Protein 1
Amino acid sequence: MTSLDYYASEDLLADDERAARDRTRRFVQEEVMPEVVPCHRAAKFPEHLRTRMGALRLFAPYLKEHGCAGLSYTAYGLIMQELERADSGLRSEASVQGALAIYAIHSFGTPEQHARWLPGLVSGERAGCFALTEHGHGSDPSGMETRAKRVGDHYVLNGSKCWIGNASIAEVKVVWAKDEDGRVGGFVVEKDAPGFRAQDIEGKFSLRMSRTSECWFENCRIPAENRLPKASGLKIGLDGAGDYEGAITRLASDPHDGSGQGAPRADFFGEAQQCLDGAPVRAESARHPGRRRHHRYLFCHPSPHES
Ligand SMILES: Cc1cc2nc3c(=O)[nH]c(=O)nc-3n(C[C@H](O)[C@H](O)[C@H](O)COP(=O)(O)OP(=O)(O)OC[C@H]3O[C@@H](n4cnc5c(N)ncnc54)[C@H](O)[C@@H]3O)c2cc1C
């Protein structure tokens, strides 16, 4: 137990979870910490760390396929905690590459799309990004203005995105846009796609080491097969571990709510409540051999299932 382990959570970890955390901690201590201060001051991400992070299988480590580490969500949390110890920008690098770009393609893409894009993203040899937020639409993505129009065997994208991690360098960009039927779809925009341009946002104080960009799509043409066929609506489940967890990430599943103002935020708060209600129930029912999994969850009030 470490001196700050007030909840004795160390005892609850499996060997592979502890090993993943310790491996990440060593990487952070030995390879990242010496670079953090100059990189933070210069507001530059040390790009060579991406392939090191790939080699250490730090991207989407909860997935089993495509070279991902196949670890538990607990291990994922521990890995993120260690990366965050160095710098939020380092943790953000892993989140954008893994939980956003890789996870979206894994969840919504075909086996052919997996084979085409995932190996390079998992190894860190190719940078990925996830472009959802727009200049006027952050918390409420149902107001999305970016459009994708089918023209023959291509889609033509028009619109803009803002605050997108790594958009200016990403070779595999997962871009969210509304099609002609008003459905939100995921489209992979590859490096050098005509009509794409990006510019980094300078002078951030927070997440300073992260590269964050604005980007524009001006008649940007991509092959029709770059649409992720299983993405329909803004169902952006980040971990798929349970219905309630999917619910809280389903920010605005119906862009046609009839109000003319985008989906009401009450939609989100209702799903947040569903998440809170569902968490203790799932935690109580989920067991690992020899130990009750609900000890892994922190409750801010006593669970109704605990006497
Ligand atoms: C460094 C950085 C990196 C990012 N990386 C990415 C990325 O890789 N991809 C991507 O798609 N996006 C990214 N984002 C965008 C991020 O997801 C948005 O900033 C976020 O969704 C909030 O949107 P906003 O900034 O427009 O704030 P707003 O939506 O304008 O919200 C401003 C404030 O109002 C609150 N608020 C909003 N609506 C309501 C409501 N109805 N009721 C009560 N309170 C409300 C919010 O909680 C917030 O405190 C990034 C942002 C930053 C700063």
Note: The longest strand covers residues 154-165.
Protein 2
Amino acid sequence: MLLDTDIGGDVDDVGALVILNNYVNQGAAELLAVGVSAYNPYSAGVIDAVCRYYGNTDIRIGQCDFTDRQIDYTDEQLEIYSKPLYYGYDNRFANEDKQPEQVIDMYREILEDADDRSVVFVSIGFLNNLCNLLQSKPDHISPLSGRELVQRKVSRLVCMGGCFLPMNEEQKGIVNDMGLDVIEYCEFNVSKWPQASKTVAEAWPTEKVFVGFEAGLVKCGSGLKQCSDGNPAKTAYARYTIGGSLQRHSWDPIAVLYACMGGENHDLFELSAAGSVSFDENGRTFFKESDSGDSKYLIWKESGENIARKLDEILSVDGKPPL
Ligand SMILES: [Ca+2]
């Protein structure tokens, strides 16, 4: 699995990374690398801190190019959990002054070496990296273009992005409480880079499963209460959530959970009919059902409460497994 994340803003990326590490530790998933789509100098260190705490010490980490003037998060946002995890927990970037890899080269190398249709790509952030990968040209790493590499080596994209209607009654209630106009709603990941998002939705040449805004509208994190106070994810959730409740919406954790559990016969989720997804210049989502479409979106098969229970059960597993 390849995970692409904007970790450093919302804390749900941290929860997603914990869930993925726990699947890796059970031998139920293999994490090939993590790429960062956000402009944040601390993201790579945060990822390494979490993975190392869970015993996965040599995960490859890539970062998109940016300059100091382009940082996506304010100083105040960086103080919430990015800097505290970067400086407070063991990681190769703060400790050894290591630099993350260039993310597109890293993805191209991994895909070039991978077996055909063996890689699941999971995106829980902005879509700039996936777009840049698709548009990458043949080079010293591979004679294939990025699009050809993806077509040959990737089996499926699971993408947290967009907003899909209709919602179920539980989701509608939450959205009404938030005061959102769901028809006009431009989901955060997609609206950051709308053109890149549109390119990925329309040109990514594999099966795609979208986890929409509505599918993440249940809170998880309380499972971390059972973890040690030295757990970096617990620290991140405690610092991010109001009053240290550890409760945050589950957009990214659900995308990773679905990707790790895989398959169509799922206890918690089902998929929509096939169709095509597109995004407009602001990031509004359009879904058109069609038999030839390669995209589906995730639908809850269970109540939000039951989905959150499953997420918290996984989040409560602390650190590396016993030898
Ligand atoms: Ca995210």
Note: Residues 5-6, 10, 13, 124-125, 252 surround calcium ion (CB under 6 Å).
